[in-house]
């Protein structure tokens, strides 16, 4: 009987094993075959291709049955011109061996088969590299920064290139793969504009340490070079005597300059204005190129509805069906507590939020304050809880083990998050929120927070995105706020969040710049040209 049971179990096991479907093998999509023309073509030794250690290159020549493909003069000319003029798109022609390729081209008719094959491979390898850089940037932000969370852009360069090659439409492939955003186009225009400026040979502007600000009708040695800068950039027109007097004409020109640079356009020349004036043409060009790279990292497929934040511009725009419906001033993180770069989706509005003190603020702000004054937290309506959830009296708080407690601020108008926050998935525990420092929005420099983004007039924003006039009109929101009861509301309408960073663009053929508040531009440019 035992033998019978054993036999039945084996049969069931075998039967189950047969019924379990095997996973389908992963098949890599092959690019289409390359249509070769009657021009000269030679066989390529695969060992030459393998030197490049590029799977993409190998697949490309698999599609041509390992024959050279660039026999057509028109196609070669197009590729060469693109690589040689890649600086017009903020790229470096020598990243694509433009000079070396031109030398090959100059003796094309005398190349032996081996050299022709080498030239062909170099053309393909460098053109594909160029296309990749245009589509998703030369560098990978995840390898440079720890606080940049962007969706990785994938690009099947062989399919795009071979399709354009076969249809004789190489001249459209470069335009088609670049970002379509208006800001990217404005950056390309900015690069074109700045290249039209002459060489910059104006000296550094220096103000005597005893002079903090220069105001209308002041006399100062620095005014001479300030006027030269204003004339150079076109903020001042005509001619000027270039004397040391801060006259009305210069005053109005300074205001125009300040407006283009996101400074308080009051005509008062302080440290911020001097710093912006001291940027040379070359430094501004490098800044534009760094921003072009960033915009190649960002998604090209914008959602129908989205929030877009430009951190250095201290601005939030709500865009719905390609129309900007709301604009808000914002406060962002300081250089020590940077606001992270994020692409995400808005999920929840929280009215009357509590605030739990995060570790960084606990260590750098709360603990030192508590050591000075045990009533510090109580004065801010912050309750201390132990690991069991029991309330701890401030006098019993162990200053040597501050991490053993949880610190929670009660809801209310003076809560650090204000009366509202908006949640979205991210790895940095940040969100958009109101603030108890509402006077900050009147400042020009608003790099003041601990990493989260603070929004001006947030309840109007909440009413707008909840989009339910009966359930969530302003009167009902205000009534709920008055209860001080924490309430979570799901955002039904889908909004993407693009919390990004850019410091340059153009507007109506005018260059526009913002202060590089996290000092990222110079370092990024150096890495691009390394």
From TrEMBL:
The protein's name in its UniProt record: Peptidoglycan-binding protein
Molecular function GO labels: carboxypeptidase activity; transferase activity
GO process annotations (BP): cell wall organization; peptidoglycan biosynthetic process; regulation of cell shape
PROSITE patterns: LD_TPASE, PROKAR_LIPOPROTEIN
Residues the record marks as active site: 433, 452
Domain named L,D-TPase catalytic: residues: 305-480
Family: Belongs to the YkuD family.
Keywords: Cell shape, Cell wall biogenesis/degradation, Peptidoglycan synthesis, Transferase
Pathway annotation from the record: Cell wall biogenesis; peptidoglycan biosynthesis
Domain of life: Bacteria
CDD domains named among the record's database cross-references: YkuD_like (cd16913)
Pfam families xref list: PG_binding_1, Scaffold, YkuD
């Amino acid at each position: 009987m035992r033998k019978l049971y054993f036999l039945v179990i084996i049969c069931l096991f075998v039967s189950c094993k047969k019924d379990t479907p095997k996973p389908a093998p992963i098949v890599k999509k092959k690019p289409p075959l390359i249509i070769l023309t009657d021009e000269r073509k030679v066989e390529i030794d695969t060992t030459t291709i393998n030197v490049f250690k590029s799977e993409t290159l190998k697949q490309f020549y698999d599609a041509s049955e390992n024959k050279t493909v660039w026999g057509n003069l028109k196609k070669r000319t197009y590729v060469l011109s693109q690589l040689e003029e890649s600086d017009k798109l903020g790229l470096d022609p020598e990243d694509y061996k433009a000079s070396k390729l031109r030398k090959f081209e100059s003796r094309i008719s005398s190349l032996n088969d081996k050299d022709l094959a080498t030239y062909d491979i170099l053309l393909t390898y460098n053109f594909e590299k160029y296309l990749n850089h245009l589509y998703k940037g030369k560098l990978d932000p995840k390898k440079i920064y720890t606080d940049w969370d962007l969706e990785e852009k994938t690009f099947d360069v062989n399919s795009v290139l071979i399709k354009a090659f076969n249809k004789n439409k190489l001249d459209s492939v470069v335009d088609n793969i670049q970002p379509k955003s208006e800001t990217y186009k404005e950056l390309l225009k900015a690069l074109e504009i700045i290249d039209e400026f002459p060489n910059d040979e104006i000296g550094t502007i220096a103000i005597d340490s005893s002079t903090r600000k220069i105001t209308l009708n002041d006399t100062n040695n620095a005014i001479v070079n300030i006027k030269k800068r204003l004339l150079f950039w076109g903020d001042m027109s005509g001619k000027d005597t270039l004397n040391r007097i801060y006259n009305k004409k210069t005053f109005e020109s300074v205001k125009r300059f300040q407006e283009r640079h996101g400074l308080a356009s009051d005509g008062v020349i302080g440290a911020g204005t001097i710093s912006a004036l001291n940027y040379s043409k070359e430094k501004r060009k490098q800044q534009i190129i760094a921003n072009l790279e960033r915009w190649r990292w960002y998604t090209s497929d914008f959602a129908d509805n989205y929030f877009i934040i430009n951190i250095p511009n201290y601005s939030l725009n709500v865009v719905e069906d390609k129309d900007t419906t709301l604009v808000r001033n914002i406060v962002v993180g300081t250089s020590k507590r940077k606001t992270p770069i994020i692409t995400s989706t808005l999920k929840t509005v929280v009215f009357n939020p509590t605030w739990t003190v995060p570790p960084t603020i606990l260590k750098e702000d709360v603990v030192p304050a508590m050591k000075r004054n045990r009533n510090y937290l109580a004065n801010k309506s912050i309750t201390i809880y132990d690991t069991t959830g029991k309330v701890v009296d401030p006098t019993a708080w162990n200053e040597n083990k501050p991490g053993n407690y949880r610190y929670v601020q009660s809801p209310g108008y003076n809560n650090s998050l204000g009366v509202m926050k908006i949640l979205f998935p991210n790895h940095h525990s940040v969100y958009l929120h109101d603030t108890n420092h509402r006077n900050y929005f009147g400042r020009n420099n608003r790099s003041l927070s601990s990493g989260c983004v603070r929004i001006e007039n947030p309840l109007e924003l909440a009413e707008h995105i909840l989009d339910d006039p009966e359930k969530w009109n302003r009167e009902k929101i205000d009534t709920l706020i008055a209860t001080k009861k924490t309430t979570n509301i799901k955002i039904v309408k889908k909004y993407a969040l693009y919390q990004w960073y850019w410091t340059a663009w153009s507007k109506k053929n005018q260059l526009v710049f913002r202060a590089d508040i996290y000092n990222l531009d110079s370092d990024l440019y150096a890495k691009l040209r390394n």
